[in-house]
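# step 3/5: fold
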Amino acid sequence: MHLKRWITGLAVLPFLFLLISKGGAFLFAIVIVIICILALWEYFQIVFHAKGGAHQGAIPVVGYITGCGIIWAAYISSFEMIVGLIILNLIVCALISLSKFKTDSSVSEIITKQVLGIVYIPLFLSCLILIRNGAGGETWIYFLLFIVFCGDVGAYHCGSYFGRHKLCPAVSPGKTIEGSIGGLATNLVVGALFKHFFLPLLPWGLSLLFFIATGVAGQVGDLFESQLKRVGNIKDSGALLPGHGGILDRSDALLFAAPVAYCFKEYIL
């Protein structure tokens, strides 16, 4: 499994480099749309695991459409459209629920989980589009990916070799406090090196805060997805990426880290 993780990761790296450096903003947005659809599919399978075919119903379909719309709205930098789509999504789902409530009183729960999915996946992914389309976007996307993914590797190895104390056993028994600290230390080291060589004008104090905040957000995102999977009683969100699981398994930390990075980039640093 460990070897598969490395092989998959190394195979994806050239694709990521070409996408970010050579693909342009439009192709980047298209790839994010594809990731959004796949991640939503996995999410709906997790949260509707106990309800059979509920993940294929009308309300999830509205979610796919809304998700794609949110990514497009971020691409054209329309914050008003993003808010409008989230509002419209809930209104449409409420209308659909009126005809279903008589035969399925749990339809309100389906709406709640769908709306959570819209915030969790397309809204958070839209922050990657906003970062990519902003000033120095390519560099900042690399910055974020290096911090998050290297932090994940650091946490995994520190937890494997030094882990003794459970971090959150009710959610993820395998994660340890030592692994978490190792991940944050890796966030700091990798972030500091990247900042020194590629973004030297950023202030050090706020940059260190950014590294820590991004690392903590990534770990929370990882645990949040683990919590969803535990409720859904499944091990992995999918099997698309050998050694990693599904798209949601690989992007769970990034989903939570992206909004933090966007806020720091635009309003703090």
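# step 4/5: annotate
Strands lie at 166-168, 172-176.
# step 5/5: archive (pending)
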